[in-house]
Specification:
Four Helix Bundle (Hemerythrin (Met), subunit A)
Length: 193
């Protein structure tokens, strides 16, 4: 397997964590929204002011998607050849390629510098299986957190609509569920480096 193929497999870990955390966010927001809509409907039917806080309950599961994007960007950086090339080298190579009318500027990077960058990329890409695993398992954990947070947000929306009280308590409970995804983000970040 070539270095670039290993790097691509590592990048799939980044795609996996974004996709799985986003899927969980969609499930979570999808679980919370109908409950909030029901509360709003009842409020309008009774000519009461609907609680605006319900919008926060619907949106809370979306943060896990952002955490997935953060990890995806970190994995993408690790598996990108340009990470291991100095900006001035890339700029000079791009200018030389443009002047020659060539699209692929990589051929204009000095051989020794390119070999060093490829070696650094290979060291990172050799761990493609770990990056893929991080993406799949981290994405499942973040997505699960988002989904369960949305289910809890649905109950919070119903409770707030029924009583008009307890918004702070409900947000704290949702925050505890959010903590799972934050821990996953932090510990994955420490693992990746």
């Amino acid at each position: 397997m070539t270095v670039m193929e290993m790097a691509d497999l590592g990048k799939m870990g980044g795609v996996a964590i974004l996709a799985l955390s986003s899927f969980g966010s969609a499930l979570g927001a999808g679980a919370a929204a109908p409950a909030a809509i029901g509360v709003w409907k009842k409020s309008y039917a009774r000519n009461k002011t609907p609680p605006f806080m319900l919008l926060a309950f619907i949106g809370m599961p979306l943060s896990q998607m952002i955490y997935g994007m953060i990890v995806m960007n970190r994995i993408g950086t690790l598996c990108d050849l340009n990470t291991y090339l100095a900006r001035d080298v890339v700029s000079e190579a791009m200018q030389a390629a443009k002047a020659a009318g060539v699209h692929d500027w990589h051929t204009y990077v000095p051989t020794e510098i390119m070999q060093h960058a490829m070696s650094a990329l290979e060291a990172a890409a050799n761990n493609w299986h770990a990056l893929l695993g991080i993406g799949v398992f981290g994405g499942l954990a973040m997505g699960g957190s988002a989904w369960m947070q949305g289910r809890a947000a649905a109950a919070a929306a119903d409770a707030l609509g029924e009583t008009g009280q307890g918004a702070a308590n409900y947000l704290m409970a949702l925050g505890i569920i959010e903590t799972v995804a934050i821990f996953v983000l932090v510990f994955i970040g420490r693992t990746i480096g």
